[in-house]
Amino acid sequence: MNNGYFKSVLLKNHIAELPKSFLPASAANDMGYYDFFCSSAEKKTTDVCLQNAPAVIMGTGGVASVHLGQSGYSYSTDTWGIRSRTCELDTEYLYYLLQLRLEEIDYFAFEGSGLRHLRKDYIRNMLIDLPKKEVALRIVQI
Fold first, then answer.
1. What is the CA 140 to chain-centroid distance, rounded?
2. 110, part of any domain
3. Contact assessment for residue 81 and residue 56, using Cβ atoms and an 8 Å cutoff
4. Within a 13 Å sphere around the CA of 29, how many CA atoms are in the beta-carbon half?
5. Which segments does the entry list as coiled coil (predicted)?
6. Which of 5-9, 39-43, 56-60, 134-138 has the lowest mean pLDDT?
């Protein structure tokens, strides 16, 4: 969509990947201080902080899930973290965009006959409608 407010771009040109986590899903505990994201849609907690900057955390096994880590959070080994690496894409806008396309991601980006796994290249090669920065900021405020 190129209408002056949005342009279609490849997602991989606008994201950076977080380092792979060393925390298994079992690192979650009920009394943790930091948000802890796993492959499930449920948010858990832990005592370990891996990141402080906003990022999108996606589950890589089972069914599609997407979370927004904002400050002071961790993620398990069965997730994939990405964030904006350009000033054109706001990380929170990316989260809402992926949340909106979650059904598509679950159907097309997960493969396998037993436990399905996320094909990260499907996400990397997604065409997204990238709004002008001021439009994206207005969208996430709504």
1. 15
2. yes
3. yes
4. 9
5. none
6. 134-138
* Residue 7, token pair as written in the block: 């342009």
Over the stretch 81-107, which tens digit does the pLDDT of each residue have? 999 998 888 899 999 999 999 999 999
Distances (CA, A) of 12 to 8, 15, 106, 136: 12, 6, 19, 18
Angstrom distance (rounded) from CA 61 to CA 51: 21
Q: Tell which phi-psi region holds residue 106, choosing left (phi > 0), alpha (psi between -120 and 50) or beta.
A: alpha
DSSP 3-state assignment of 76?
coil
Q: Quote the CA–CA distance of 36 and 25 in Å, as a whole number.
A: 9
- Do 51 and 35 touch, CB atoms closer than 8 A? no
115 residue type, one letter: L
At 125, the amino acid letter reads N
Q: What CATH number does residue 69 fall under? A: 3.90.220.20
In the chain, pLDDT over 90 holds for what percent of residues?
A: 73
How many structural domains does the chain have? 1
d(CA 72, CA 89): 21
